[in-house]
Amino acid sequence: MNNPCNQSKLLSMYLDGELSQVQSDALKAHLDVCPECQRTLATLRENDTLIRNMPAPEPSTDFDRTFWKKVDALEERSRGPWLQHLFRGWRPVWAGAMAGLAVAVMIYFKSTGPMTPEEVFIAEHMEFLEEYDLIGQLEMLEHLEAVNAMKELT
Predict the structure, then answer these.
(1) 38 within a domain of the structure (yes/no)
(2) Is 40 in contact with 8 (CB distance < 8 Å)?
(3) How many C-beta atoms surround the C-beta of residue 95 within 10 A?
(4) Which of 17, 31, 42, 91 is most buried (most C-beta within 10 Å)?
(5) CA dist list (Å): 56 to 16, 52, 67, 131
(6) Which of 92, 111, 34 is nearest to 11 (CA)?
(7) What span, in angstroms and rounded, lies between the C-alpha atoms of 106 and 116?
(8) CA torsion sign, 39 to 41 to 45 to 50?
(9) Which domain holds residue 149?
(10) Contact 37, 30 (CB under 8 A)
(11) Is there a domain that residue 133 lies in?
(12) What is the pLDDT of residue 28?
């Protein structure tokens, strides 16, 4: 297939019927006088016949599963980290939402005021209090003063 002729590149297109009528006629005239192109065209025709007569390959029984697994892996690789995909194109929206959330948190903590000593104690000993099921009985802590007053009366 090492045909030095400049027409050899058109032979495959000629064989596939991809040339215009003018190009096809010019190549036919060239083939009448060029034995190298005639041999190359004959080889291309033989190869084409061999390929067309090959039996179609049968896929394996798990072809579908394997194929879609590879497709999913390629999509996952091209998608990249989900956060990066989530932020792409939405950065101004997310930035505005985060700024709004930060302002809301600051306003909330500003309006609630400082924590009472009891709240600080509960926050510091949360794990201990959960173990003794005291967190579930916080309503009683709201009325702690009344409970202490009742104890003093008895």
Answers:
(1) yes
(2) yes
(3) 11
(4) 31
(5) 21, 9, 18, 69
(6) 34
(7) 19
(8) positive
(9) 114-154
(10) yes
(11) yes
(12) 92
